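Handout for the seminar on molecular recognition.
Each group receives one record of this type.
Step one: identify the two inputs.
Step two: read the structure output and locate the region that could contact zinc ion.
Step three: write two sentences on what you found, then compare them with the reference statements printed after the record.
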Amino acid sequence: MSEGMRLMAVHAHPDDESSKGAAATAKYVAAGALVIVVSCTGGERGDVLNPNLKDDPDLLRDLVEFRRREMKAAQDILGCEHTWLGFVDSGLPEGDPLPPLPPGCFALEDLDVATEALVRVVRDFRPHVMTTYDEQGGYPHPDHIMTHRVGMAAFAAAGDPTAYPDAGPPWQPLKVYYNGGLRLERVRALHKAMLARGLQSPYAEWLEKWQSRREERVTTRVPCADYFAVRDRALLAHATQVDPGGFWFQVPLEIQREVWGTDDFEAALSYVPIPDDEDDLFAGLGTAQQADALATRGGLQLAYDGRLTFEAVRS
Ligand SMILES: [Zn+2]
């Protein structure tokens, strides 16, 4: 049913594509869809988070090149396409007061410049569906928040023939979803399941510290438990960014499959209605040919605006 459909996942850094929605990516690829991951930045300012590689001299000499190779390995494991948008990692500011963002970084980039770059990729790949992060970035890294702004702006502009006329012929993606990665509800369920089996949960401290930044409004749960192992392999391919002994890998896959076998998304905007209990990002779009016709028809009216729902929930 996903044969020939096209999905674009817009992410901030190499490795985000493997920690957020990666099992759904692998599932759609296996079902005959084309998936492209867009990495807005090269991850230039990431720390080395794998204790085994922390002081590796080759790596410290050229982290960027390592991360490019890791991304290629993860891409091959997920079976997707990939492109770099070419902006520079802003880094996660730490300290009190927070230091200013480094000049030239993605989060300080002119929104128009970054949006045009993404619109060009959208008009070239012609996705039926896009995913990006929510307005708080899903995780408040400046690059994740910028990814949200650029992703939403490109979704709005790509189908408008008067916007960025030099960036290719208009193409209107039909839906955009927020991709939140691990959500509170899921972490709670996994935590409980570990304790119920007499196992130690890696999430106790995390749950204590968790501040729900806003209501989570999952609209769409994509069953993809069969691809959790692929997801983990893709994540491990980002060897500098992932501690193989870390909490990501401490919950046995059979427990994850049993307790929470989906990747979850929030519909943000859609030109087709979003049904209750949606389980497919391509739902309502018909065949690839029908979706192509819709995406180029022009004059489409939004059928769903999840941003209004978020506002209503907050107030
Ligand atoms: Zn990131």
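Reference statements: The chain has one domain: 6-182+216-314. The first strand starts at residue 6 and ends at 11.
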